[in-house]
Specification:
Layout (H helix, E strand, L loop, with lengths): L17 E12 L2 E13 L15 H8 L7 E6 L2 E2 L13 E5 L2 E5 L1
Antiparallel strand pairs: 1-2, 1-3, 3-4, 5-6
The protein binds adenosine-5'-diphosphate and magnesium ion.
């Protein structure tokens, strides 16, 4: 996911309830490594609603899994309410497909 500029740039750990800073994720596969996320920084205040949009394979699910504490980042930091994210964070991340529309076209967010 290189399109980090489309995400909220709120990364102030004091202001953000959920804070991801410089998060990268590389998957090791039999065919080599897959860089799913590179230096993604995003924050969300308590109660704030965020949408993660992008083409298939850009790293949306990986980002949500890391934010939810279900997947460890290869590098970078994740904190919730100012504390390092535990293995399983007390937030939910829906990875189901959600129909949505942008640029006048219908897409699904996964
Ligand atoms: N468990 C995994 N092992 C190897 N590669 C993966 C794994 N999960 C996702 N990927 C790869 O990481 C990239 C991002 O995947 P993903 O986060 O599922 O994107 P999205 O949800 O935006 O479609 C893709 O290239 C995908 O093939
Ligand atoms: Mg997905």
């Amino acid at each position: 996911m290189a399109q980090t500029k489309s995400l909220s740039s709120e990364t102030n750990a004091e202001a953000a309830y959920l804070c991801l800073q410089g998060v990268s994720k590389v998957y090791a596969t039999h065919d080599g490594s897959v860089r799913a996320l590179e230096q993604v920084s995003v924050g969300a205040r308590r109660g704030e609603f965020l949408s993660v949009l992008g083409p298939s394979g850009c790293g949306k699910s990986t980002l949500l899994m890391i934010a939810a504490g279900l997947l460890r980042p290869s590098s970078g930091a994740v904190s919730i309410d100012g504390a390092p994210s535990p293995a399983r964070a007390p937030i939910s991340a829906s990875c189901s497909r959600v129909p949505c529309c942008w640029n006048g076209e219908r897409h699904s967010a996964t």
